[in-house]
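Take a look at my tokenised protein here and describe the backbone shape.
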Amino acid sequence: MAETQLSQIEINDLIAGAKGSEGSDSGPARQQKAIKTYDFTRPDKFSKDQLGRLQSIHQTIGRVAGARLSERLRTSVTMTLALTQQMIYREFVAGMTLPTMLFTGNAPQLSGPFLLDLDLSLALGWVDRILGGGGELPKERHEPTDLEEALIIKAVDELIPAIAEGWSPFGVVTPMFDEPAFGATMLRFAAPTDVVAVMSFEIRYPGTNAPISICLPYDSLDPIIERLSTPNWHAQQKRTADTAAKAEIASTLQNVEVPVKAILGGVELTVDELASLKPGDIIKFGESTDHPVRLSVMDQAMAWAAPGKVGDRVALRLLTPLQQLMEA
């Protein structure tokens, strides 16, 4: 086969023609697609809907906790949810201000623990407030004494009912906190690369503004994670509202007074006979003393009963269950 050699001019023309062809092809196949970066060290496990539901839950927690802490600290306290985000546990630990006070929490509906990060200066400020001071944050952090730790734990206990109310759509949640630890290195809470949802709060009372955070690992929420999606959430909210309404109605009805009466006997009298009655007269009834009497609830015959006495009081002993009687 004979070889054909191209001149440099012919080679340049071919290259120029190829470049022009690429530039003129504007079809969909030639359009460059936008590339989205994905960090495999920070997988996004929580969807936007799930983070939104967690935000709603913890806004309720903050509102209830603020009210309870106001009573404990005897001053107006607000606990506002400032930020909801997902990250890996290593990043959460790196953002802590050490030394800090960490409480590991557990709840029966979760498959693992969650973490409460209480700013140590805030905790010591609580102690000062409880002991009659102004609640100012100390300039230097130090590990609390046994007495200070006991007072801090009492204050943290005010968060338990708030957490229970926030998570109430998922049933009765009664979280429990373990003894506090100081610094994340003392806690084998999660693997460094585990995905967690972090809810960051701001606690404010006169002269004080300090942070507090709740850290929820994705794996701990696994049993209920699907129920955090929007359709499931609204269905759960409706069921919870229906249950709460029924419970409220039942509670109200427990205190309603219902008239109950028994007709021991009856007799027909003329107006003249009725008008002529005077003290000491005896009215004879057609019923025998050992004959059952009919018990009525709100004028509806409900049971048969036997008359008798308990001490000095007239009484009735039920002979049949309370249920509507068929009229004879």
In short: Residues 260-276+285-318 form one domain.
